[in-house]
Amino acid sequence: MNTITNAQTADTQDRPGRTAETPAKAMPAYEQIKRYVIRRISEGDWKPGGLIPSETELVKEFGVARMTVSRALRELTTERVLTRVQGSGTFVAPQRYESTVLEIRNIADEIAARGHRHSARVLTLEPSDDPHALEALGLANGPAFHSCIVHSEEGEPIQYEDRYVNPKVFPEYLEQDFTVETPNHYMVRLAPIQRAEFRIYAQKPDAYVRRHLMMDIGEPCLQLWRRTWVGDDVATSVQLWHPASRFHLAGNV
């Protein structure tokens, strides 16, 4: 059973380089349920078009009032994350962005194309037994490989990259110097991607990501979640955070 937790507890979990901040107010229960639903969708547990648990099931799962669950689902429907069908239930909305619209590009190449200098700061490069990452990569057991990197353009951070990698596909991942070559460039050079799936969100980052992107409190991010395959294996699952004021997404169909 999931339990509704205090946002202060969640926001002060240990992360690389994390420092204490002013305690936050408790996150409303409906907001925590919204984040739970979004996480299950972003990690691929609940698929586009699929039926999610009913209000009654979520009430039992979280131990909250029905009106709390109803508000969470209603707001997610308004935000087009979910679709509610009278008499049938609540479904994950179809993806708003298809992978065919987006080209997987190396951020260092994008920055160079603008005539600017790319730099990278590696925050984390380690094995990980994170259960959600293992599930996203389709691994029965760990470890997976984990990296967190801040990419900057002319010294200004424009992307926070949180990536999990399948060691079966890239066994020497942890031995690389990602200040010299980006993970994207390294992986495509070794094993070209066969297919990918994307999800894109407008989100407010947590305090840790916000600090590393040098963002103001309350400034939104464009968050891209992407999973890629090499052959039949999931190669990587990555979240990319971009400050909305310093980044835009463009593509050609």
TrEMBL record:
Ranges for region Disordered: 1-24
Keyword Repeat: no
Protein name: Histidine utilization repressor
Biological classification of the source: Bacteria, Pseudomonadati, Pseudomonadota, Betaproteobacteria, Burkholderiales
GO terms of molecular function: DNA binding; DNA-binding transcription factor activity
Presence of the UniProt keyword DNA-binding in the record: yes
Listed PANTHER family: MANNOSYL-D-GLYCERATE TRANSPORT/METABOLISM SYSTEM REPRESSOR MNGR-RELATED, TRANSCRIPTIONAL REGULATOR PHNF-RELATED
Spans through the membrane: none
Top-level taxon of origin: Bacteria
Biased segments, Polar residues type: 1-11
Keyword entries, A-Z: DNA-binding, Transcription, Transcription regulation
SUPFAM superfamilies linked: Chorismate lyase-like (SSF64288), Winged helix' DNA-binding domain (SSF46785)
GO biological process, one term: L-histidine metabolic process
HTH gntR-type domain span: 27-95
